[in-house]
Amino acid sequence: MLDQRYRWKNKQIREHVAVLDGKLSPDMVLTNARFLHSTLRKWVTGNIWIYQDRIIYTGEKLPEKTSGCEITDCSGQWLVPGYIEPHVHPFQLYNPQTFAHYAAQKGTTTLINDNLMLVLLTDKKKAFSLMQKLRHSPVTMYWWARFDGQTELVDEEMVFSHECVKSWLEHDAVLQGGELTGWPKLVDGDDLMLHWIQEAKRMRKKIEGHFPGASEKTLAKMMLFGADCDHEAMTGKEVLNRLMQGYTVSLRHSSIRPDLPVLLDEMKALGIDQYDQMFFTTDGSSPAFYEEGVIDRMIQIAMEHGVPPVDAYLMASYNVARYYNIQHLHGIIATGRVASINFLESETNPVPVSVLSKGVWLKKDGKGIEPEEPVDWALYGQGPLELDWDLEPDDLQFSMPFGLEMSNSVITRPYSISYDVSYEVLPDNYEDNFLMLMDKKGKWRINTLVKGFAKNLMGLASSYSSTGDILCIGKSKSDMLLAFKRMKEMGGGIVIAENGKIIHEIPLPVGGIMSDKSMDELIGDMKKFSSILRDRGYAYDDPMYSLLFLCATHLPYIRITSKGMYDVMKKTILFPTIMR
């Protein structure tokens, strides 16, 4: 059954009807259930019958047969549909399986996942096999189909070929195209991207935008091209602009953009009090950000800022399901839907005491179940990173006339390097670090300096980047070499070295990008990593995203990429990579 995307076979549907007719017993009955009815928009009371992973009946009746049936009295509880996270980047050090288990403990039982790392780290056949494997998870996972790599890739036309993108769009687990990080190419006349959008629309699938700071005219253009939703509104006015142009708006609260309180307050000041065309996203935040919750946290913030509880719960469930045309499966507690239900202590506390997902208890009376058997990632082309080359002292030559200066966690501007950097260890009074991006296959490198990252950092090596290539940062060349050596030994990860010693490491054995640890363990590792960097001068919100986006060309102004140092605004390569 789990091998299907909820298209129940005839035999199974006959069994469902037999339960209703009293010929078979349901697996579970929830009695005296006060639950939110998403279309009535109010709390109703009744009994809920569940057979396997499907709700068979909601109403006043009780089943005729109850042999072997689990009966749960829900008196005193409030039941709501399982929460849906519509914009997941499931590779932010965690992996899709560990994030799904963690999110489900807090009530988020359906995830719509970015496919970027599946495209970059493995081939299509293995990616689709992994998606099939993950269908056996008690958490429901859907996917996107990316149209670009959000960086300048060598042979990008092969990585994101027409055949590849079309295959992803046709996959039944894929609900949308995008996000459109490469939308400037579309505006400039990229008809292949426009064709992919047209194909997605023909298949009745959505297009997710990525339009930070977009003007009213640009938003209108992108709506004409086919965009349906955007998650980049950073003010109430920007929310209004998107609504006026016909967008659905995904309100974001993330580790680098914790905007939800401001958005809600400014929306209220603008007189926006209808929420049917809105839902929530945490936009792939770093592990530590999730310590306080996932979508449950956003529901709580919404209620604290004046959103009525019913609206807040619908924004976390039914609004998403309706937008993606999956409301026949998700987002409503009613006959025929997947049995994913959160059990709350009160109407105003969205953190569930019990969680039912696909008819299986993932949390019961405050106690979570053990995680499922870990995926063998190597079977799907995402085993430990294997580097058949070494970083050599000769690679650490830095003579670039300008470097990257950080304005915040993710924005980098150019600055002139007018002073001597021919040191083995940069002087303490320099605010710069050496910065190098290395091809994971060892074929090329780009060397420059970065200012504002962490001026007292000696050596850091990371296989975690937006392309899976290797980053090295630090003041000391010998510590950079040591950190790289240890990162290579681990099969990928993030390593900090100082004065000839390793002082912290985060192994990332899943493709060199993701951890196989639980989220709780990873949160501890990431908090220590952030603390070490802050002690050495890192002054921004999220060092994980700083590493991730050094190569990402969907943000201004200067980036290091596999093609070289890239000017995002002028769309030109300023200095090419050096072949090794």
TrEMBL record:
Keyword annotations from UniProtKB, A to Z: Hydrolase
Source taxon at top rank: Bacteria
UniProt record similarity statement: Belongs to the metallo-dependent hydrolases superfamily. Adenine deaminase family.
Pfam families attached to this UniProt entry: Adenine_deam_C, Amidohydro_1
EC numbers for this chain: 3.5.4.2
Record-given protein name: adenine deaminase
InterPro entries to which the protein is assigned, alphabetical: Adenine_deam_C, Amidohydro-rel, Metal-dep_hydrolase_composite, Metal_Hydrolase
Keyword Hydrolase among record annotations: yes
GO molecular function term, any single one: adenine deaminase activity
Annotated Adenine deaminase C-terminal domain residues: 410-571
Main EC class the enzyme belongs to: hydrolase
KW Hydrolase (keyword) present: yes
Residue ranges of every copy of the Amidohydrolase-related domain listed in the record: 79-361
PANTHER family for the chain: ADENINE DEAMINASE YERA-RELATED, N-ACETYLGLUCOSAMINE-6-PHOSPHATE DEACETYLASE
Catalytic activity, reaction form: adenine + H2O + H(+) = hypoxanthine + NH4(+)
